[in-house]
Amino acid sequence: MRLSGFRSRIPIKKFMVGYLAALLIFGAFGTNDLNRILRGAVIVTLCAAVDLFWTKIRDKKWYLPLSSFISGLIIANLLSPQAPWGWLIFAPVAAAAFKQLIHWGPRHIFNPAGLALIVVGIFFPGAISWWGAAWGPTALAVVGIIGIFILWRQQRFHIVLPFLAIYALGLAGLLLRAGVSVSDLSAILRRELIDGTLFFFTTIMLIEPITTSFATRKIRMIYGAIVGALAIAVSLASRFVPIPDALIAAMLGGNLIVTLATIKKAR
């Protein structure tokens, strides 16, 4: 009871804003490119401003758009530092618009930041770089440790574990099919799974509370497994069709499939 009460008192949205902002700043210093902080500030400001004024016009009220700060910071940590300023402006505006327009009841159908990044990636190959989480071993340690805390606070281990199980099995199958020996398989899997990109994806994007606010724990577990299977399928498809990012595309596919299934069940 005491542990549960302590967890519920942690303001997760404010924590996420602080964590993602610190990750952005830390990564900018770690890569010796402080211009990334300026670019990140522009992205976050645009995302929050569009959401704030859109809500004001529609609902006649002001509010603190913490969720848009989070979306903007996700984009800032993932969008390539080499992306032109036009796409840097488009991505946060699109994310705010997707949040406002594409939803079912109180729940977003798609993760807004993920959908905006995929759209940018379609027109600007290489736009998604995951630089904020994957610039070195220090970033890996930070994302891993904080990520475990986030999963505990959000109580979302039951989404991540099915995803990882299916994803690891599928990845093992792909590696064996590609000719990797059984003796080398475990070492390659460890390298692929102990990765800042995967840690960031599973602890920030995959478990995003609003897009995973399904009615039951079982549905959320199925969602995690579906995204894991789709990540492997998209990886295979990307050999023939240009897909900006397999993980984000798989998440968006899972968002849609489970949302449509739950809508049908509700009806």
How would you describe the overall organization of this protein?
- Keywords: Flavoprotein, FMN, Membrane, Phosphoprotein, Translocase, Transmembrane, Transmembrane helix, Transport.
- The structure is a single chain.
- With 267 residues, the chain is mainly alpha-helical.
- It has one domain (2-266).
- Helix content is 73%, strand content 1%.
- It has twelve helices and two strands.
- It has helices at 2-8, 12-30, 35-59, 66-78, 85-101, 112-123, 137-154, 157-177, 182-193, 196-205, 217-237, 246-266, and strands at residues 103-104, 107-108.
- A two-stranded antiparallel sheet has the order 1-2.
- Strand 1 and strand 2 (107-108) form a beta hairpin.
- Helix 3 packs parallel to helix 5 and helix 7 packs parallel to helix 10 (196-205).
- 38% of the residues are buried.
List keywords for this structure.
267 residues, mainly alpha
Order of helices and strands: HHHHHEEHHHHHHH
Number of domains: 1
C-alpha geometry: globular
Tally the helices: 12
Low-confidence stretches: none
Quick description:
The protein has 12 helices and 2 strands; from the N terminus they run H-H-H-H-H-E-E-H-H-H-H-H-H-H. The protein has 267 residues and is an all-alpha fold.
Topology:
Elements: H1 2-8, H2 12-30, H3 35-59, H4 66-78, H5 85-101, E1 103-104, E2 107-108, H6 112-123, H7 137-154, H8 157-177, H9 182-193, H10 196-205, H11 217-237, H12 246-266
Antiparallel strand pairs: 1-2
